[in-house]
Design goal:
This protein has about 100 residues and is mainly alpha-helical. The chain has 1 helix and no strands.
Length: about 100
């Protein structure tokens, strides 16, 4: 009786081991497919993000050179002119 139970347990464990092995093979196959899918889908997204980053960098450089720098120069020139006018009128800058 005990030998029969042992034999049945061995058969059940062998079937279970085979099923676990098959499931592991399917799991590895699915992971490989997932990695290929991610590589295929993420590469274009990364390339687009890189292009967008270059565009944003170019835009900020253009704005800095063409708008911000001239605005700062005009503002500083106007501040200097105001200071000169105050001195000419007899008001010393810093006096209240």
């Amino acid at each position: 009786m005990l030998a029969e139970i042992r034999d049945i347990a061995i058969v059940v464990l062998a079937i279970e081991s085979i099923l676990i092995g098959l499931i592991l093979i399917v799991l590895v196959w699915e992971v490989i497919r997932l990695l290929k899918f991610l590589r295929r889908e993420l590469k274009p997204l990364i390339d687009e993000m890189h292009d967008t980053t270059r565009t944003v960098k170019g835009t900020t450089e253009f704005l800095s050179e063409e708008i911000v720098s001239p605005a700062i120069k005009v503002s500083s020139t106007l501040a200097a002119a105001r200071g000169v006018l105050k001195v000419i009128k007899g008001k010393i800058p810093g006096d209240n």
